[in-house]
Design brief:
969 residues, alpha/beta, Rossmann fold, Isoleucyl-tRNA Synthetase, domain 2, Isoleucyl-tRNA Synthetase, Domain 1, 4 domains, six-stranded mixed sheet, five-stranded parallel sheet, 31 helices, 38% helix, 18% strand, elongated
């Protein structure tokens, strides 16, 4: 196919550096045998054979670092900024990865995608600035430091622990910076944004102050996710769901005597409300049982008792219980039951029947155990009925001493003890287990609980934050479009944002509490002083300095006039840290702007960074911080399974780079639609490596045939070009248009497939295949050859620019070998534009017919090969019968068709009656007859010709080649 310099009809040996074509008349060396006798002429040296220093073997693992060093020396990113002065900006704002551990394939995918977007926007005429960032605070880093410090941590102050955390984050920022740069990602690596930098920490405090100023922050006791192992509250985005086996129990709550008497029919019989739960440990905190306001309930006689449960679940529940002998004796409305009281099965406490729309008939009994301190719906129900938010569980997840029977027990361990107590009291109807999706801590991977504690919240209802956020969502472009629905539903249904954490490494909630009355001091003066301090000393100053140093002058409590305060020691949720990056980065750096043009992260960030950034911006600026949000899928193995150490299917980016090169990793990112999950395996990488080799060798072939071409001196005008070359440039314009549109839509897989198809089908299998004869055998400076070279130069220049955002290393390497004067880096160039002057639809229509003819002729040639009528195509004469409508258009094109078919002769004639002729499949009415060509094979061009043997000075070559050898060069 013209790759690797395997010439289709020239048997020549080519060194790594190619062959030199001598100037002047072609000298023909005598070939001699071992004894010195003459063997004829050696015409190899008369051919224009490819020559280039661009190596066939990529050696990417070795060559890529050399290119990275060159980019650093030339300050490529700085030069990009210089050439972009005055251009419209394009800001892709980097979602910060955690400064924790080495990069993995997911982070590599993310950074490469961002790099492709930034580079493609840069080459599309924008000033595409990329400021990378790192998330530096929070549990992931503190957890690792805890493991490193071990028992030593107990003897350390909070400030000392924070310094260890800062050093740990700095270490991995440096590691990840080099790993990201190794991927070929360009950016402001010497000036990234860090959420632990002093100016960023000051901005975090300043943005928190804006929420306080608007009255959006409240302190209250609410049930939130709590990790007993990490001893801290968790945000929605810090919770992962995994399969978990839990106890599944059905429990009888006896109706109180007074409530039983209120139901006239059941005065003299025990009545029980049946509940179902998978968290027996929460029963000591039960204060109510919720019924749905619209459901009908049934009183069911079971033995000597009456059980109350949802009418629609009676049959299912009795089957589950294994009870066949039962009788529905009465229907009850939920309104009729509301306000009645049950007795707790094992505690001296009432449990009130209340109404709640969260009750469903999907499972259980339609009567929902309600512990206000351990569930969101339970909490909301408690507020409606004035119930206590009771949560008798400490920070370690153990029952407090006030809990009878179970005080001091870890809650999950207490499940069995609770069940035993229920059984002892005769309240346990059924005990089984259930496997279900259960929340786990994202860091320690252990199950979490809902626990009501005193926390700081950003209210979703104050200042209409929820309403404004939902409105802002519809002002944003979401790609894929389902991202809009996903985040909309999350915002619509989410609780208040719990922003407090009980840890050390983070930015503190910079407010004070009056010692006398408990009033919170959170005035603008407080935040002004704190942010000024953080700008100089960072957030450590809050923990190092006394309350007196931190308070503004003259601070007094607005509630009681007191002057003694305690500073808050909780830190902020790290999602608040990264969520205010629009303020800390986009608004504070004068060369950036807010809102950003694009946020790009994995689809899990709809509940993570996209989510917190939206609330943080809408809550203070009443608008989203981004114009568009693009999401990518997750990396999975070749079979579609999630990568995990236990499955042994984890692939590390460094391994791929060392074996294949970062370029193959970049090609992998571009090869599939990243909006879905992306598969990777050694087989996939090997196939992509082969694809890369084909593209590289196509570029090498083009460079090899441009070794003596200077576009300024040798370029041929379009009007003087050969028809085939003009067609090739027309097809190039179609490729440029297709690729540019794909880049505009961030559809890199379409770029990859378009360019790969163009290189293998349009170029190697067609245009270059035909072109070799002209490139190699025509006079070096002839219009025919220079026309071909002009087309090749334009094609290669366009391909290198179009693929530079994806194959950044190889495009740069090939660019350095491109003849002519051009920018010192391909990345400083602009994408090619569609040149309307080269677009020729009529020419395309004509060549579409030629290609159809070529397909029919190729089938006939293959049949002739199989029949051993010919050896290869140049042994053939093709007799071609064209449909009558086509004859006027191709009557004078026998020689053109000969070159297109790569045969020695084409005759256009009438083949009616020739039964051995093959009917065309692509062209109706076409007939093809292949027969051996007459004449002898030319030793120089391999075409069979009757003119071979007619020249005394060169008896073994044809007239065409004889003319070339006598053409002055």
């Amino acid at each position: 196919m013209g790759l690797c310099y395997k010439l289709r009809f020239f048997r020549v040996g080519i060194s790594e550096n190619g062959l030199i074509v001598p100037k002047g008349l072609f000298p023909c060396k005598q070939r001699r045998g071992k004894g010195g006798e003459e063997k004829g002429m050696d015409y190899k040296t008369t051919l224009n054979l490819p020559k280039t220093d661009f190596p066939m073997k990529a050696n990417l693992a070795q060559r890529e670092p050399e290119l990275l060093a060159r980019w650093d020396r030339m300050d490529l990113y700085g030069k990009l900024r210089q050439v972009s002065v005055g251009r419209p900006p394009f800001i892709l704002h980097d979602g910060p990865p955690y400064a924790n551990g080495h990069i993995h394939l997911g982070t590599a995918l993310n950074k490469i995608l961002k790099d492709m977007i930034v580079k493609s926007r840069q080459m599309s005429g924008f000033d595409a600035i990329y400021v990378p960032g790192w998330d530096c605070h929070g549990l992931p880093i503190e957890h690792q430091v805890d493991k490193e410090l071990g028992p030593r941590k107990k003897a350390m102050t909070q400030v000392e622990i924070r310094r260890y955390c800062r050093a740990y984050a700095e270490k991995f920022i440096d590691i990840q910076r080099q790993e990201f740069k190794r991927l070929g990602v360009l950016g402001e690596w010497d000036n990234p944004y860090l959420t632990m930098s002093f100016d960023y920490e000051a901005t975090i405090a300043r943005e928190l102050g804006r929420f306080f100023e608007r009255g959006s922050v409240v302190r209250s006791k609410k049930p939130i996710y709590w990790c007993c192992s990490c001893r801290t509250a968790l945000a929605e985005a810090e919770v992962e769901y995994h399969d978990h086996e839990s106890p599944s129990i059905y429990v009888k709550f006896p109706l109180s005597d007074e409530s039983r008497r209120a139901l006239a029919d059941f005065r003299d019989i025990p009545v029980h409300v049946i509940i179902w739960t998978t968290t027996p440990w929460t029963l000591p905190a039960n204060l109510a049982i919720a019924l749905h306001p619209d459901f009908t309930y049934a009183a069911v006689r079971v033995g000597d008792e009456v059980w109350i449960l949802a009418e629609g679940l009676v049959e299912q529940c009795m089957k589950t219980f294994g009870i066949e002998d039962y009788e529905k004796i009465r229907e009850l409305s939920s309104r009729e039951l509301e306000g009645l009281q049950c007795r707790h099965p094992f505690l001296d406490r009432a449990s009130r029947l209340v109404l709640g729309s969260h009750v469903t008939l999907d499972a259980g009994t339609g009567c929902v155990h309600t512990a206000p301190g351990h569930g969101r719906e339970d909490y909301d129900t408690a507020l409606a009925y004035g119930l206590d938010v009771y949560s008798p569980v400490d920070d370690d997840g153990c029952f407090t001493a006030e809990v009878p029977f179970f005080g001091g027990q870890f809650v999950f361990d207490a499940n069995a003890a609770v069940n035993a107590k229920l059984k002892e009291r005769g309240a346990l109807v059924l005990e089984t287990t259930v496997s279900h999706s259960y929340p786990h801590c994202w860091r320690c991977k252990k199950p979490v609980i809902f626990r009501a504690t005193e926390q700081w919240f950003i209210s979703m209802e104050r200042n209409d934050l929820r309403k404004k956020a939902l409105q802002a969502i519809d002002q944003v472009q979401w790609v894929p479009s389902w991202g809009r629905d996903r985040i909309y539903q999350m915002i619509e249904n989410r609780p208040d944002w719990c922003i407090s954490r009980q840890r050390s490494w983070g930015v503190p909630i910079t407010v004070f509490t009056c010692r006398q009355c408990g009033e919170v001091l959170a005035t603008p003066e407080v935040f002004d002083k704190v942010t000024a301090l953080f700008e100089k000393e960072g957030a450590d100053g809050w923990f190092e300095r006394s309350v007196e140093d931190l308070l503004p002058d003259g601070a007094v409590c607005a509630g009681c006039g007191g002057k003694d305060f305690d500073k808050e020691m909780d830190i902020l949720d790290v999602w608040f840290d990264s969520g205010v990056s629009h303020a800390a980065v986009l608004e504070r750096r004068p060369y950036l702007r807010s809102p950003a043009d694009l946020y790009l992260e994995g689809s899990d960030q709809h509940r993570g960074w996209f989510h917190s950034s939206l609330l943080a911006s809408v809550g203070t600026r009443d608008r989203a911080p981004y114009k568009a949000v693009l999401t990518h899928g997750f990396v999975v193995d070749g079979q579609g399974y999630k990568m995990s150490k236990s499955l042994g299917n984890v692939i590390v980016p460094g391994e791929i780079i060392n074996k294949f090169g970062a370029e193959i990793l970049r090609l992998w990112v571009s090869a599939e639609d990243y909006r879905d999950d992306i598969r990777i395996s050694q087989d996939i990488l090997q196939r992509l490596s082969e694809t890369y080799r084909r593209i590289r060798n196509t570029w090498r072939f083009l460079l090899g045939n441009l070794h003596d071409f200077d576009p300024a001196r040798h370029g041929v005008s379009v009007t003087a070009m050969q028809e085939l070359d003009r067609y090739a440039l027309h097809m190039l314009q179609k490729l440029v248009g297709k690729v540019r549109r794909a880049y505009d839509r961030f559809e890199f897989h379409r770029v990859y497939h378009a360019v790969h198809n163009y290189c293998t089908v349009d170029l190697s299998a067609f245009y270059l295949d035909i072109l070799k004869d002209r490139l190699y055998t025509a006079p070096p400076d002839s219009v025919e050859r220079r026309s071909a070279q002009t087309a090749l130069y334009r094609i290669l220049t366009s391909l290198l620019k179009l693929m530079a955002p994806i194959l950044s290393f190889t495009a740069e390497e090939a660019w350095a070998h491109l003849p002519g004067h051009h920018a010192e880096s391909v990345h400083l160039e602009a994408f090619p534009e569609v040149e309307e002057a080269l677009v020729d639809e009529a020419l395309e229509a004509r060549w579409e017919r030629i290609l159809r003819l070529r397909a029919d002729v190729s089938r006939a040639l293959e049949a002739a090969r199989q029949a051993k009528t010919i050896g290869h195509s140049l042994d053939a004469r093709v007799r071609l019968h064209l449909p009558e409508a086509w004859q006027p258009d191709f009557a004078q094109d026998a020689e053109l068709l000969r070159t297109v078919f790569i045969v020695s002769e084409v005759r256009l004639e009438n083949l009616d009656g020739q039964v051995e002729a093959m009917d065309g499949q692509e062209v109706s009415g076409c007939k093809v007859l292949v027969e051996p060509a007459s004449g002898q094979k030319c030793e120089r061009c391999w075409v069979l010709s009757n003119t071979v043997g007619t020249f005394a000075d060169h008896p073994t070559i044809c007239a065409r080649c004889h003319d070339v050898l006598h053409t002055p060069q």
